Amino acid sequence: MAQRLTDRRRLSYNTAANKTRLSPPKRAGKAPRSACGVCPGRRRGVRAVRPEVLPRLSKTRRHVSGACGGSTCANCVRDTIQRACLIEEQKITVTVVKAQAQSQKAK
User: Fold this and answer.
1) What sections of the chain are H helices per DSSP?
2) In Å, how far are 68, 93, 98, 101, 102 from 105, measured between CA atoms?
3) H-helix or E-strand containing 23?
4) Is the pTM of this model over 0.85?
5) Radius of gyration over alpha carbons of the chain, in Å?
6) pLDDT of 45-97, one tens digit each?
């Protein structure tokens, strides 16, 4: 039987006819698009690369400058800001209603 060939980064295997073949090296799969931290949606502006390539990218290509630094998608950031504004508005209306109730009690 023939000796197995060994080549770096390649796998050798014997065939049924007792010949040795080299299989091509494995390729890294396609990088997944970066996902939003809140919803299953995708983030825009963030490159989809393999983890070992990420440190070589410039900072502007790794994240988005803006609210949440690109950890969430634009829709979730908008919803968060709207929710915060509505909560603040609700607090203000509660204090106004309490002040009106006190002023009517005083009359």
Assistant:
1) 59-62, 74-106
2) 46, 18, 11, 6, 5
3) strand 20-23
4) no
5) 30
6) 888 888 888 899 998 888 888 877 778 888 999 999 999 999 999 999 999 99
